[in-house]
Amino acid sequence: MSKAKNNQVMEDLLNSDGDIPTPPKPGTPISGKVVSVRNNKILVEIGGAYTGIIFGREAVDGFDTAKSLTVGDDVKAYVVEDENAEGYYTLSLRKAGREKAWDKLAAMIDTTQTVEVTIKSANKGGLMTEFSGIRAFIPVSQLSPENYPRVSGANTNEILNRLQKLVNQKLTVSVLAADANENKLIFSEKAGLSGKREGALKKLKVGDKVKGKVSGVVNFGIFILFNDCLEGLVHLSEIAWGRVSDAANYARLGEEKEAVVIGIDENKISLSMRRLTTDPWLKQSQKYKVGDMVDGVVDKITAYGALVKLEDDLNGLLHTSEFAKNGESETPEISLEVGDKIEAKIIEINPEEHRIALSMKTGEEKPKKAAKKKEEVKADDTEEEAGEEKPKSEKKPAAKKKATKKKEE
């Protein structure tokens, strides 16, 4: 009998005997019982008729399953190779672990559950990591306030430098998206802290003083991370009393700062550094009263007027309408320049708005009598030009000519 016929007979016998299970096929999952664990090799009995072996990289599944297995334990694995010369089917915990991981990740979506991952690499868009052998991505927008790269001008090279500092660090994240079919896994560090943040936010109230670490310095203010999970913004106008043009002059990344909470709007926390100190404006403004004439230096020109520095932390506003002099338009063109020294009158002091209004108007018009005299002078000039009355300087030559004529006669 030929070999092919023998194999066919054996297959027919196996198929006809219901007690003998179908042989495992590569690429399919199996369930078995551990019969031996030694020399980093795990032997698994499959259906009471076949034996599988798990070893090497196929024993690593991200859940440390192999380390916890003992004789008699039930185990799930994937068949990766057909029966070898020794009669063993090669099995994989790694592949089974990936399927188990996808199931776990899918169940974590829209929950507060978190996992810890190690950052493998970084690019300009975010961080790369993995979970149970599955590659995953953490977008920049999903980083916690502590790790978010706040960079003025959105400089991509500086953002990348900040992100690369997180490589090899461990982060606690939650699942944002998990799709095994598309092999797509996205984590969020920010969402992983949401529960902790919500609890801290409920305890926070306006007026609280906080101390934290500077997490960002940008052109519109300073970000401070406090209570481990909350972040607030100190706007440029709340950094210090007086005019602040560059936040970088008042804080450095990682530096500790104190501030007071001045606003809580949903997830937005507003802080102030200047309100922790006495307002110098109020003290300095007490030296002045409405009607005083003051000297100042033009510090800034705007579309609505000029900002005039009276003292280091005290400015006055000279509105365009207060430039007008007698006979001029009520809104003349501004002729002042930055650095000009001027004298002006205080016409308003508003402590609540920190505003001192100035005026350069000359005051009341001159009496009409003086104006009439001026008109008469102009009339005299007109008459002289018309020749009705010649000046004395013109009469002398005429008299001299008359005398000469008489001598000739």
List the SSEs and their pairings.
Elements: H1 3-16, E1 29-38, E2 41-46, E3 50-55, H2 65-68, E4 74-81, E5 88-92, H3 93-108, E6 115-118, E7 121-123, E8 126-131, E9 134-139, H4 156-164, E10 170-179, E11 184-188, H5 189-192, H6 194-203, E12 209-218, E13 221-226, E14 230-235, E15 256-265, E16 268-272, H7 280-285, E17 293-302, E18 305-311, E19 314-319, E20 341-350, E21 355-359, H8 368-386, H9 392-408
Parallel strand pairs: 3-5, 14-16, 19-21
Antiparallel strand pairs: 1-2, 1-4, 2-3, 4-5, 6-10, 7-8, 8-9, 10-11, 12-13, 12-15, 13-14, 15-16, 17-18, 17-20, 18-19, 20-21
Write up this protein:
The protein contains nine helices and 21 strands. It has a five-stranded mixed beta barrel with strand order 1-2-3-5-4. A five-stranded mixed β-barrel has the order 12-13-14-16-15. It has helices at 3-16, 65-68, 93-108, 156-164, 189-192, 194-203, 280-285, 368-386, 392-408, and strands spanning 29-38, 41-46, 50-55, 74-81, 88-92, 115-118, 121-123, 126-131, 134-139, 170-179, 184-188, 209-218, 221-226, 230-235, 256-265, 268-272, 293-302, 305-311, 314-319, 341-350, 355-359. With 409 residues, it is an alpha+beta fold. The chain is rod-shaped. Strand 4 and strand 5 (88-92) form a beta hairpin.
